[in-house]
Amino acid sequence: MHFVRRPSSPILALERARNHHVIAICDGIEEEIFRILTQRFGWEPAAVQYRLDFFLAKSIRCVLPGELHICRDPNDDMVLECAVASGAEFLVAGDKDLLVLGAYQDVRIVTSAEFLALSA
Question: What is the DSSP letter of 71?
Fold first, then answer.
């Protein structure tokens, strides 16, 4: 007997964003994703890079001045700044510190499940 695991809503949201929207990224966010997946989750660096290359192939790259300082975590500031700089409609997050904001300027901050429902 084989069991097939259904993709989680973050993976489905990432796939929908890649296929139907434009993902905004900056060097700092990409470095943070790489660090978390390799150090915290133990992924092989080559596997992380392969997936990043795939999901970010059609992304836009932002250069951030680093002027935003409203969150307790500077990485959250970077994510907000990238969303604003790119003119994003949504910032899809699982981070509670970002989600509690609800929105920042014209960017709605939503969970992956909310994004899937809103972008259907």
Answer: S
- 94 within some domain: no
What secondary structure letter does DSSP report for 106? T
At 3 the pLDDT is: 61
Angle between helices 27-35 and 74-86 (to 10 degrees): 140
* Burial of residue 117 (number of CB atoms within 10 Å: 0-12, 13-18, 19+): exposed
| pLDDT tens per residue, range 19-56 | 999 999 999 999 999 999 999 999 999 999 999 999 99
Query: In this structure, how many other beta carbons lie within 10 angstroms of the beta carbon of residue 104?
Result: 18
Owning domain of residue 34: 9-87
Count of domains for the chain: 1
17 lies in some domain: yes
What does the pLDDT read at residue 2?
A: 58
Please report whether residue 98 resides in a domain. no
